Amino acid sequence: MAKLWGGRFSKNTDAFAEGFHSSISFDSRLYKEDITGSIAHAKMLGKQGIIEAHEAEKIVQGLEGILADIEAGKVHFSPHDEDIHMNIERLLIDRIGDAGKRLHTGRSRNDQVALDFRMYMKKENTAVIREIANLIQVLLQIARENLDTIIPAYTHLQKAQPSTLAHYMMAYAQMFSRDIERFQAAYGHADSMPLGSGALCTTTYPLDREYVAQQLGFHEITPNSLDAVSDRDFALEFLSAASICMMHLSRFCEEMILWSSGEFAFVSMDDAFSTGSSIMPQKKNPDMAELIRGKTGRVYGSLMTLLTVMKGLPLAYNKDMQEDKECTFDAADTLLSCLKVFTGMIRTAVFKKENLYATAGKGFTNATDAADYLVKKGMPFRDAHAVLGRIVVYCEGKGQGISDLTLEELKEFSDVFEEDVYENVSLEACVSKRTLPGGPARESVLAHIHSLEKFLSGLD
Ligand code: ARG
């Protein structure tokens, strides 16, 4: 069977080389975008009188039939026709004859693949944004239920100051809300319609690009044809947003892995999201969290793949760019499944409030507040810091906390201490006095919850 582009060729493609350059094994997933794009193109050709109206009609019907057959599993694609674009064109010509040969008028696979990929990535961005929004909803719910659940907060993985589980969850919720904004931006750059760019320098047919853009739900048309056929920024932006989102998931997973260890014992993962050991009967492992952490590397790899593919390419289209799809599809699939699993895992996790509270009370997490107490009574902060440093060393020697010391003992370090020190350095006080915007006090966290609720409701 001759190639659709075979006119100037006198030999068949080498059999191994054919398999090597064919992309149908992975770009077949663009079938719907390809057919929808071709239908819009055919309608436009008919409307503009570039092909006869009845031919346009025949093409549209033929393409609709092919779409239905693909979805019913009745179509077999072949590497002989290289990619999804030529497989579908071949099917169309086989089915409707000469009218089918007019579909590719004023079009190249270069602008066609750019169109299909952009349409597909708009869909993936939307799906990812929906999954992240679901995850944020779960985090907001955990936060609402834990406004007063005191936890130890860390810097350098050393206990630092008390916070609340709500404040902690909202930190991740904020990170994920930025991810949504990044995917919205990636969507925005994909939302530009490239058809009409032709192979690279447009075409002489009087195409109506705006009409095609409207039919396909694009918000604008690409303004330069050389750029339009060689631009994969929208995929790079998706991969970059995906990498950052995976990094956020990975950090969260890392903490849940630590927190579920016997040493921390702050959380217990539901059995439905844990696995056992084939030899050690006692084991319950946080495999889901570990796997998400691991898959982060794979998504970063996809970003590096495409950045590297693109870095030396002269304008305009080059076949190298066919390497844009597998890595991007794999990253999108990976991210979507990680988001789904993570959301289920965190929604069903049980936080051990007593351990969180008990641990928050250790490690002198109220030392800053004890120093601030002295400052509020007039002592310069540096002096107060030094006083507390000495108190901490003394407490370490006795195996006690700051508020376990008697007032007499405290007065040995500074006579500024009075009876009211105790109520000022309790864990509850440390949290409830941090009412600044962004802080862990109930009202501050509630304000943050409300602002993210508003952000989410603005998405639909
Ligand atoms: N399969 C190709 C790709 O994914 C489609 C465009 C091919 N264009 C060409 N002139 N070879 O990039």
UniProtKB/TrEMBL annotation:
The entry's keywords: Amino-acid biosynthesis, Arginine biosynthesis, Cytoplasm, Lyase
Please classify the protein's predominant subcellular localization into one broad category: cytoplasm
One GO molecular function term? argininosuccinate lyase activity
**Catalysed conversion reaction:** 2-(N(omega)-L-arginino)succinate = fumarate + L-arginine
| Fumarate lyase N-terminal domain boundaries | 7-301
Q: In which pathway does it act?
A: Amino-acid biosynthesis; L-arginine biosynthesis; L-arginine from L-ornithine and carbamoyl phosphate: step 3/3
InterPro entries for the chain: Arg_succ_lyase_C, Argininosuccinate_lyase, Fumarase/histidase_N, Fumarate_lyase_CS, Fumarate_lyase_fam, Fumarate_lyase_N, L-Aspartase-like
Q: Supply one GO CC term from the record.
A: cytosol
Q: What is its EC number?
A: 4.3.2.1
Q: Specify the protein name.
A: Argininosuccinate lyase
* Encoding gene per record: argH
